[in-house]
Amino acid sequence: MYNAKAYSAAGATAPLAATRIPRRAATPHDVQIEILFCGICHSDLHAVRDEWYSVMPTVYPIVPGHEIVGRVTAVGSEVSRFQPGDLVGVGCMVDSDHSCPSCRDNLEQFCPDAVFTYNTPDRHGTAPVTYGGYSESIVADERFVLKVPENLELAGVAPLLCAGITTYSPIRRWGDIQGKKVGVVGLGGLGHMGVKLARAFGARVVVFTTSPSKRDDALRLGAQEVVVSTDPEPMQRHAGSFDFILDTVSAEHDINAYLQMLAVDGEMTLVGAPAKPLQVSAFALLFGRKRLSGSLIGGIRETQEMLDFCGAHNITADVEVIPIQKVNEAYERLTRSDVKYRFSIDMASLKG
Ligand SMILES: [Zn+2]
Ligand SMILES: [Zn+2]
Question: In terms of Cα–Cα distance, which of 168, 170, 150, 172 is closest to 159?
Fold first, then answer.
């Protein structure tokens, strides 16, 4: 074991502060990584403040962070796919049971024994729970370490490990969206990745937003059209015309208004997580045989596919880079959606 510098929160109302945490020495199948950038996901904030206590209560201290990019510093004796110096990523998971039906289908995110990157009991016993990426280093099983293309700007790569795969996976699962009409609801951390990825797959992308001020940005990110969802005229005009809609909104909202936008056999997939149950009108689904579904990150194989796709198409997240000392301020801004479109922590700031 060794100690690593990190930022942790001691309780639901405590700020994140500098600390030292134990990390295990690399076992034969482990990769040790020096973290260069870590994105700030909205889940980090929910976990730090214990806002998801009914589903996954937070164990304190918590070290959040699951959008990790860095360089390999050491590998275990049995590791064959990585060597020191390689550029790598770690996303939302660091282990699973490797044997259940989901794992066999490369859907480790649905493994009943999935080990998430933070706040999951630590099988190695290094600490009570796993500690995430707000740290100078991390040690993970090589099966959960991703290769990062060398051509991408690293600060913007970090959010691909959660926001990127969360939007990539449902687009891929829907099928070939080239030439299809695709709606993206909400233009935040997830939505802006959805726009970039759907466009790169050749879809005709329409962004739905409640903020007219986001129009120019949506077009710059790749949308062909922007619909202000509070404006009845364009909502009428687009009704019944979408093949696929990706709903990225985590706040309470009327999903029936968007189900009306779908064509016959159209599908809407939720990737945001509103705290309260949403009302669904059966009629909105019956007329047009429409489907409503959900999606959660993606498996490791698909995450690698997403990174390779982003490398080939030069896609990264739009980020605001911050030193770790500004993380609490960033959380406050995140609660007001005051970021374009993701914070990425420059982990060099932790070394000083
Ligand atoms: Zn996340
Ligand atoms: Zn499993």
Answer: 168
